[in-house]
Amino acid sequence: MQHSRWKLARERKLVDGYRESPEIEQERQEHRLSMALAKAVYDRRTELGLSQAELAARTGLTQAKISRIEGSDTIPTLPLLAKLAKGLDASLNIAIDADDARVTLTAHNAA
């Protein structure tokens, strides 16, 4: 088998004009958004020096739920996102464009 014929998806797009189906592109966008939320929650939690169990206690969620959020294994509801932001003492910002999705947690200023 000639491995030199294998191409990454991005190479196929550039060279061959290959396009994935709209369903696959949508799934990739959803996954990127989920991963962005997971990273933002993890980064803010570790910045605060909290364990998953401590964050769970602050939010009224379980440690398992925090783990699933950080592992991007769940689709959070708006009330859950509000609990996370409050527990992380931050504002949750989500920006969704056609080709990009960004999630940030901005720390509240200490009064």
UniProtKB/TrEMBL annotation:
InterPro entries: Cro/C1-type_HTH, Lambda_DNA-bd_dom_sf. Pfam families: HTH_3 (PF01381). PROSITE patterns: HTH_CROC1. Residues 41-95 form the HTH cro/C1-type domain. This is HTH cro/C1-type domain-containing protein. One of its GO terms (molecular function) is DNA binding. Transmembrane segments: none annotated. It comes from Streptomyces brasiliensis.
